[in-house]
Design goal:
Radius of gyration: 29 Å
Shape: elongated
Structural class: alpha+beta
Number of helices: 12
Strand content: 15-25%
Low-confidence stretches: none
Order of helices and strands: HEEEEEHHHHHHHHEHHEHEEEEEEEE
Largest sheet: 4 strands, antiparallel
Number of domains: 2
Distance between the termini: 76 Å
Length: about 375
C-alpha cells in the first residue's frame, strides 16, 4: 500500500521539478535565477538581490516550515520527497522490470541517463531550457558545468547512494535533534514480538539496511518498505504488520509551530504583495562640477510584468539636462545619469518619476 502511494508522489515530484522551468509566466520561467542580472523570477514576479528583506522573510518561513514538518512528520521528506530517494527508487523500479539477474549493474547503467537529466534540469533553473538545449554543446562554460554536474550526480547516486542519507546528509543529522517522543516514526511492535515469524522480510527490503526489530534507528528514512514487506507475510495469517507508523501528529506543538509557520507565510505574502511596481534610487555623484550643477546616478527598477513609459521631473527651480523620458521593459532595470542645474540657491533636490498611474518622489542633497 505505502509503496504505491510513494511511487505516485515520486513521479509527480519528478514531473513538477523537471517541468517547472518550461512553465512560462509573463514571458519568463515560473522559477529561475538569472545570474547576469541577479534576479529571481518567481511565478510571474521578480525578486532583485537588493531586496534582502524579502530573502530574510523567505528564509525565516522556510526554516519554520522545515521545523514544523520535521517535528510533526519526522523523516517524511527523506522517504517520500528527497530527490535522491526519488531517483534511486525510480531506477530500482525500472531495474526490477528486467528481473533479478545483474540488477546492481543494470541500476548503475540506468542511472547514467537519469543523472544527465538531473544535471540539465539543474541548469534550467539558471538558464532558460530553450537556450540551454541550443548551447549545451556549443558554449564551453555550459558544457563544462553540465559534464561536471553529470559526473558528480552519477558518482553520488551510483556509488554512495543510500549511504549519503545515513552518514553525510546534514538534514538527517539535524532531524535527530528535532525529534520528540510524539514525532511520527516507523516503530516495531515489541509487544507482539513472540508472534513474529522472524522471516526478516523487513530487513531484506530496507533501503538503508537496518533491522527495524532492533528498535528505532536514526538511519531510518521512514519509507515504509518494511511495513509493506511485513504486511505481505502477515496478511496470509490475518495479522497486522509488526512495524507501522507511530506518533501523534495533532498535539500542542503542532498547533503553535504550525501557527508560527502560517504567520510567517502570511507576512511573506504581504511583503510580496505590497512591493511597489517601480523602485527609484537616486545617488549624487561626488565629481567636481561648476557651482549650481550636480550629477546624479539613477537606477529605476520595473517590478511589474508590463512595459512602462515614465517621465523624470522635478518640482524645484532646476533644469534637467539629459534623457528624462524613460521606457522600461518588464522586470528590467535602467541605470543612467542626469545633470541638474539650479536656477537659484538650493539645498535639497526633489525628483519625481511619473506615468502609467505611478508617481514616486525622492529627495537628495544639492550643492
Amino acid at each position: 500500500m505505502w509503496r504505491k502511494q510513494r511511487r505516485v508522489v515520486e513521479i509527480l515530484q519528478a514531473a513538477v521539478v523537471t517541468g517547472l522551468p518550461f512553465v512560462i509566466i509573463n514571458g519568463e520561467s515560473a522559477l529561475r535565477f538569472d545570474i547576469p542580472t541577479l534576479k529571481l523570477h518567481l511565478f510571474g514576479s521578480v525578486l532583485w538581490m537588493r531586496e534582502f528583506y524579502l530573502i530574510l522573510a523567505a528564509t525565516l518561513f522556510f526554516l519554520l516550515f522545515t521545523g514544523f514538518v520535521t517535528i510533526t512528520l519526522g523523516r517524511v521528506w527523506c522517504g517520500w520527497f528527497c530527490p535522491q530517494t526519488v531517483l534511486l527508487d525510480l531506477s530500482e523500479s525500472i531495474t526490477a522490470m528486467a528481473g533479478k539477474k545483474h540488477r546492481k549493474l543494470l541500476q548503475k547503467l540506468i542511472l547514467i541517463p537519469l543523472s544527465a537529466l538531473v544535471s540539465v534540469t539543474m541548469i534550467w533553473y539558471f538558464i532558460p531550457p530553450a537556450e540551454t538545449l541550443r548551447t549545451l554543446f556549443v558554449e564551453p562554460t555550459i558544457t563544462a558545468f553540465f559534464l561536471v554536474l553529470w559526473l558528480l550526480v552519477y558518482l553520488e547516486l551510483a556509488f554512495l547512494g543510500r549511504g549519503f542519507c545515513i552518514s553525510i546528509c546534514p538534514y538527517a543529522m539535524l532531524q535527530n535533534l528535532m525529534f520528540d517522543k510524539d514525532t511520527l516514526v516507523i516503530e516495531y511492535d515489541v509487544s507482539r514480538d513472540s508472534t513474529c515469524m522472524k522471516c526478516d522480510a523487513c530487513v531484506h527490503v530496507c533501503p538503508v539496511g537496518i533491522d527495524i526489530k532492533k528498535g528505532l534507528s536514526s538511519a531510518c528514512i521512514a519509507c515504509a518498505e518494511c511495513i509493506d514487506a511485513c504486511r505481505s507475510m502477515t496478511a496470509k495469517r490475518g495479522m497486522l504488520p509488526f512495524p507501522n507508523y507511530r506518533g501523534q501528529v495533532l498535539r500542542p506543538k503542532t498547533y503553535w509551530l504550525g501557527g508560527a509557520t502560517a504567520i510567517a507565510a502570511i507576512a511573506l505574502a504581504l511583503l510580496l504583495w505590497s512591493r511597489p511596481p517601480v523602485d527609484f534610487l537616486v545617488i549624487r555623484d561626488n565629481s567636481s562640477l561648476p557651482p549650481g550643477l550636480n550629477r546624479y546616478s539613477l537606477i529605476i527598477y520595473n517590478n511589474s510584468g508590463k512595459q512602462l513609459a515614465l517621465e523624470l521631473s522635478s518640482s524645484d527651480q532646476v533644469t534637467l539636462i539629459g534623457e528624462h523620458r524613460l521606457s522600461l521593459q518588464p522586470f528590467s532595470a535602467i541605470h543612467g545619469s542626469i545633470l541638474v542645474k539650479s536656477i537659484g540657491k538650493l539645498e535639497h533636490l526633489h525628483l519625481r518619476i511619473s506615468g502609467e498611474g505611478i508617481s514616486i518622489n525622492r529627495e537628495t542633497g544639492f550643492l
